[in-house]
Amino acid sequence: MIPPPRPPQTFDPRHARVFAVGGFGAVADGQTLNTAALQATIDAAHAAGGGRVVLGAGVYLSGTLSLRSGVTLEVPRGATLLGSPRLADYRHGNWPALIKARGAERVAVIGEGTIDGQGALVAADTHRINAEGRYLDFFPGLRPGEPFQSLEGIGRFVAMDPHALHAAGQLGPRVFPVKPKDDPEWRAAEFVRPQLLEFWQCRLVHVSGLTLRNATCWVQTYRDCDDVELVRLKVESMAYWNNDGIDIVDSRRVTVRHCDVNSADDGICLKSDQVELGCEDVLVESCRVRTSASAIKFGTGSYGGFRRVCVRDIDIRDTFRSAVALEAVDGGSLEHVVVSRIRARNMGNAFFLRIGHRRPDRPPGRLRDVLLEDLDIEVTCEQPDAGYPHPGPLPPERTNLLPSSIAGLPGHPVENVEIRGLRLRHAGGGRVAVACVGVHELDRVPERAASYPEFSMFGELPAWGVFVRDAAAIRFVDGVLAAGAPDERVAVAAHRVAGLRLDGVTIAATPARATAIALRDVRNPAINAVDPIMGAAVRVEVVGPEPAGR
Length: 550
Known about the structure:
Layout: E1 18-20, E2 29-33, H1 35-47, E3 51-54, E4 58-62, E5 65-66, E6 71-74, E7 79-83, E8 97-102, E9 105-110, E10 114-116, H2 119-131, H3 156-159, H4 162-167, E11 195-200, E12 203-208, E13 211-213, E14 220-223, E15 226-231, E16 234-237, E17 246-249, E18 252-257, E19 260-263, E20 268-272, E21 279-291, E22 296-302, E23 305-328, E24 333-355, E25 367-379, E26 404-407, E27 414-420, E28 423-428, E29 463-477, E30 480-485, E31 490-508, E32 515-523, E33 526-531, E34 536-537, E35 539-542
Parallel strand pairs: 1-3, 2-4, 3-6, 4-7, 5-8, 6-9, 7-10, 8-11, 9-12, 10-13, 11-14, 12-15, 13-16, 14-17, 15-18, 16-19, 17-20, 18-21, 19-21, 20-22, 21-23, 22-23, 23-24, 24-25, 24-26, 25-27, 25-28, 26-29, 27-29, 28-30, 29-31, 30-31, 31-32, 31-33, 32-35
Antiparallel strand pairs: 33-34
């Protein structure tokens, strides 16, 4: 039995003592920069032992605000906190944000108003700064004239301190150079671009009721925090790249409930950037997600791992990548996870479970003890996120639609995964003649252990429903795999699996008399799958290498 997550401690953020920002000189005209006035109000509430800082009606322009212990910032209906369009108005050094809190306790941001980061304008200002040759001014500790290189892919926690990284001599060939300033696809590193909310090493955090719009990077991050409540948040952020909706990073006892996320990158994302930490005791429930990346994602950063996480009652739509992506690729473990009652429409992929090995200094992590239950998912042949300002990248040439994947590594299998009550409706229509790797060619499917994990990372696959490789104790119970159009590929392909069970699974739209399930190097299979039209067991074939001379 998978243990449930432990709930967070909570507190009432509605302090009786109110500090009105107008009394400290804030002007709600949308043009006056109110950073100093708003910060003075927050500091006064903190000095008084706590209180509620309340914005009046109107639009308050501001740069970075530091939230203090015991302070609630309230943005009521009719009020907007508007992020400055100037990058220089944000505090740099770690990761800039419109609202920051570090090491604080009993902090909250509440209300039914709006926080708008004006991400497109901030991004434009960043491009202007780069074109003027002043980009390095925003990296404390780097000497003028020194080349700076992007820190993507080596851990965001480390990347947040470029000075320390530079001093350690780690700005080297492992990272790729920033594109020339006249390159039209140039964009600033993630940690230069402001988020809307960033809480770091805080305890007892409450954020509720707000509409969060137009971040320049991730919308909100809760990093190394304890006891976090996120309730009734509406995220609308497609202003620029990397607009993750909600990021839970190395935090413990977190509840995300009744949130509506529409973002241009991963929707609700758990990450781990510190080996000694990880995400633990997280509940995500009753949310809606639309995104041009993955809807529910664990990773990509997975240094410490994920333990005791429950995701349930999620409605997903128009999402380019996976409805559910569970990734252990940086040495951490992902275990004791339940994902249930997922309804997803117009998807690029259903689910993706992956063990990778991006850290050569650490052994691969583990992915085990996972239950996926009652997943009702439709995979489309169209562009799921059509109309987004930054849609997902289409392949350069035609390929067949890809299946869901459960993929470990040789000697490091994905273990003990049960998929119960899966209803997968796949567009189908795959043809073997379209760059397909055949079932006798499973060794041709690349490992790509060190690559960025995505459901498309293996390229063309010989199955339309599910591909399983390097796994143990994988069970499909009482499910339906149906293709909208006949597909020449098998529904399920399994390679190097110890213990594969299909019990009460219905498989439709594989051509009559064709193999529906292909097994290679599969020990102890137990297959109880039927064709709903023929009313008989589907054809299962044990395959070997491609015949010589072909």
